[in-house]
Every structure is written in structure tokens, then in C-alpha cells.
Amino acid sequence: MQRDVHRRENTRTSLREFRRAPCKQRAWQVALLLEPTFDLGEEEGSRSEVLGVGCWGALVKDKQPSVRCMIEWVATRLLYRHPECCCEMWSAIKDNSEQRTGSICSLFAICTHLCKLYEGRRLEEFMESMLVEILPWTMMQHFSVRTYAQVALCTVWTVARQQNMLDFCERHALLEGCFNQVATVESNSTKSVKKLMESFWFSDFHPIADYSIEVIFYILPWLCLLAQDEWIHPDLFADINGLTWLRGNHSGDLQLYSPDSKLRTAKPGDWRTKLGEGARASEPVSVSDLEGNVQKKLIPWRSLMPDHTEADVTYKRQSGAQGGLVLVASLIDKPTNLGGLCRTCEIFGVSEYVVGNMKYVEDPRFKSLSVTAEKWIPITEVRVHELEAFLQRMRREGYALVGAEQTASSTSLCDFSFPAKTLVLLGNEKEGIPVKLIQLLDACVEVPQWGVVRSLNVHVSGALFVWEYTRQHPPVTTTTG
Predict the structure, then answer these.
(1) At residue 447, does pLDDT exceed 50?
(2) Are residues 362 and 430 in the same domain?
(3) What does pTM read for this prediction?
């Protein structure tokens, strides 16, 4: 009994950590490996915490397709082993829809998979609940939600006919007839439903038969369009001692390779660019093999240190004393503008970012725009009344003082050459730079305009200055780890 309680607690703790992990993809892959050891327990509170914290809550926050697929897979397998917990999913549909409507698409996907896995009386009870819970969403205004709900109900009728569930079909003959009549109408909606049902996730993937290291770490990342350096070939796992123990504790359920998996010849997600002429659709390909441009998110620290993980990297900019660009935003008082500028400064390697009050850095509105940039860039507090003395000190240290302002003698940003050691002062959103501070500057530079509106937002103006300086003086970055 004590061991079971300890196991349930470890399950809850593990799932909490998976949601916090910086590499969510890898964390949920590990969750899939450990899923057979997760015990939902018999207590309703314990089940709610494991599923609610570990799966339903994560679906609200995670929008990346590859991560969502992993979460859906974990939840599907858990509910397949513990069908008595399906009531938790019906509650999650309501709760998740209030937080982020699109997240319930994943819950409908889980229902679709379970509909194909359950059998007998359990299947009939589950499909009865699906009709009650999902039918209203088939008329939802949200396009994706409506499409996933219709796919789930299409699966209900398909499975019912395949399983020869005559009583079920007879009870719901009117509903099935209405649903089929709508499905025969040629429209963008019905085309989307058909297209989704034909996708690899619903036509080729099997949550039980495809439970293998090959699918978890290699095939599914490829089908979900992760960069090639995220694919791990199953051969690399063959000689791992710990893996032998893990597979033994799965009672043979976890395999290295999937036997005759349809996924090997499946078509990747629709958001993928078509393959080049020489590539075979049955094999993962590198980005260089694809025809045309392909979206690829940049991970700066990885290109600097390819042999290190994110946790190993200590990222250091040039300090302000060593030169570079110092951006002074002390006159700005809107947290959103300050947060956006912070993000821009971090991305383009600004040496020092100056704000009027450090309280802005803790403001939720600042953080929503900075997306953690404040952790990776030096931020200094210089209050408005201290600016005059600060500018004079920076001039003594060899900085050229440049104001982002339109004046009678200002220079166009297109024509201005930034010295290596430059301080850029941004003005207030409404008043700009006070006259007494303009008199201290070495130059005023303006962004050329051709429109009717009087000026740009200060965040946009600041970003243009940061980019132009960076273009002229690419930043120096070093890493240690």
C-alpha cells in the first residue's frame, strides 16, 4: 500500500516537472517511455491531479504540434489502461474551453483514438458519452474545434458499423442520418474534416501498436516537422543498459522498432513544404532536401555551441564598459514598450539596456513582451532626474550620445554612421526627448517617413535604431560552459 502511494506521488511530481521543462518535446518523450509505470490510483483526487496537472493543463499551454501529439499519446494510453477515468476528460473539455478554446481539439483527438481502442460494453458506453459531450461542439463557431469534433463523431459511426453495433446504430439512427446528410454537402468544412481524417495522426497512427522507441524519437518528430537534429535513430538506444531494464518493466510492450508501422510511409503534416524531386516520401529528409523555403526557428545558443545543451550555456554579452550599444529607455513609462524593447535588445546583442525604474521589469505586461529576455541582457536603472548626469558620465567614458528625435538639424537614419561606442537615447511616448537633454547630445537621428501619421511607436523606432547599429557593428558574443 505504501509503495502504491509513493508511486502515485512520483507520477504527479514527474508530470509537474515535464510541464516546467525547457525542452518540452524531450520531456514528453520520456513521459511516453515511463507511461506504463504511471499509476492513476483509485482515489478521484489523485486521478484528477495526475491527468489535470500532467495532461489537460499542458494542452492549454502548449501549442506546438509535436508536443501536443506526445501529450495526446500519453493521455490516450493512460485512459486506455484506466477507462474509469474518462469522466475526467469530460470535465476537462469544459475547463479547457474556458481557458483556451483551441486546446480542446486535442481532447477530441484523444476521444477519436480511444473510440478505436475500446471494445464491447466499454466501447458502447464511451461512444454514448462522446455523443453527449462532443455533439454541441460540431456546430461551434471556432473552425478547428468544429472540425475536430466532427472527425470524432465520424469515427463513432464508422466504428459502430465496423463493430456491428446494431442496437447503438438503431438508437441513434436519426442523428446519424442528419450527420451523414451534412457530411455529403461539398463545402470547405467537409473537405477539412476529410483531410484531417486522412492525416497520419488519425489514419496511420495506432497508440498501442506504434508504441516504440522508433516512433517516439524518430518517426513522429519527422512527421511533426521538427528539425532534423531533433530526430534520434532507434539504433542509438540498442546498447543502453537502462533501456533493457525499462523494456523489461514494460512486460514487452515497449519495442525498439514498430513492426510494419504505416507511419514509415505516412505523409507528414500539411504545413510541410513538398519534397524535392530526388527524395523518397518514405524517408525523413533534411531541410536542405526540401524544395523552396522552409520555416525553421533559430536557436542562437545552439549555433554558437552545438555540443552543449541549453542548460550548459552561460551566455555573455560585451559589457557596456567594453563598448557596444547602450540603449537608454528611461523616459519611457509603458511596460509593454519597455518589454518589447528588451526583447529586441537581447536578440540583437545590445550591450546594456537602461530603464527608468526596475519595477517595470517585474510587471506582467513587460514580461509578456520580453519573453524572458531580461534574464539574458544587462539591465541598469537610471531614473529620469539622473539622466543628465548619466549622459555626461557616458560621454567621459567615450560614448557618442545619439538621440532618436526629429529636430531642425537631425540626420536621417539611412545616412548616419554609428560609432562603435554609442549611446542611443529614446524619448517619451508623447513628449519625446526634453530640450535640456537634446542640448547634451552629439547628434539627433530620425527615421525617414513617407506616410501621413506623425510618428512611429517608440518601440518600433528603437528597434530600427538597434537594427541599424547592429548592421553596422555586428555584436561580439562569447559562451562558456
Answers:
(1) yes
(2) yes
(3) 0.54
